[in-house]
Amino acid sequence: QLQLQESGPGLVKPSETLSFTCSVSGGSIVNSNMYWAWIRQAPEKGLEWLGSIYESGPTYDNPSLKSRVLISVDTSKNEFSLQMASVTASDTAVYFCARHLLGDSSPDWFDPWGQGVLVLVSS
Amino acid sequence: AIRMTQSPSSLSASTGDRVTITCRASQSITDYLAWYQQKPGKAPSLLMYATSTLQSGVPSRFSGSRSGTEFTLTISDLQSEDFATYYCQQYYNSPWTFGQGTKVEIK
User: Fold this and answer.
1) By CA distance, what is B56's nearest residue in A?
2) Using CA atoms, how far apart are residues B74 and B85, in angstroms rounded to an integer?
3) What is the pLDDT of residues A85-97, one digit of tens each?
4) Residue A31 confidence (pLDDT)
5) Smallest CA–CA distance from A42 into chain B, residue
6) Which of B94, B97, B100, B102 is most worth mutating to test chain A (most A CB atoms within 10 A of its CB)?
């Protein structure tokens, strides 16, 4: 059974770069023919898709984040990562990683999800 | 970006009730809609995709439908484990967007 697990710091200072890693177990990113995504949820708020990466590197990015987000994949470690630059308090959220299933021509829904990791942006 | 608007934002219901949640897209997304269930402190889990196709293991009391750009999630015979927040998500195009959620609470 495919499982995803996020890891990263729980506290980041404003203006710094936030970094998370998602480890994939129970299946391989290589030859998965899938995208791998990051989604966040601010406290008591809804879900916001941040970006997705294909196993070989092509990405989809959310333009609302104004190029602050960089997603990368390390197939040798079976993991993918998120970096978000210049964070502010509004970036405080639970960050989830998820498999982004590839449909006929582009990614579709998200399944499964990691358990999520809370990050607080505060000085 | 396609805007997804859910209603109501919350509702109270009793076990055994029939519950309906609506999600309206700001433009046509054909049947490219998924629903998720999220329980407190947990990650969302996929309920259904393609408007009405249940994910494996999801009980048949969950169903979905579409009329134009309005989508409906129906839970018949509400069970205690169904009290949660439900989100819709369009995958017609990027950026993939979610509704703001509907919290189903115990009456």
Assistant:
1) A111
2) 13
3) 999 999 999 999 9
4) 86
5) B100
6) B94
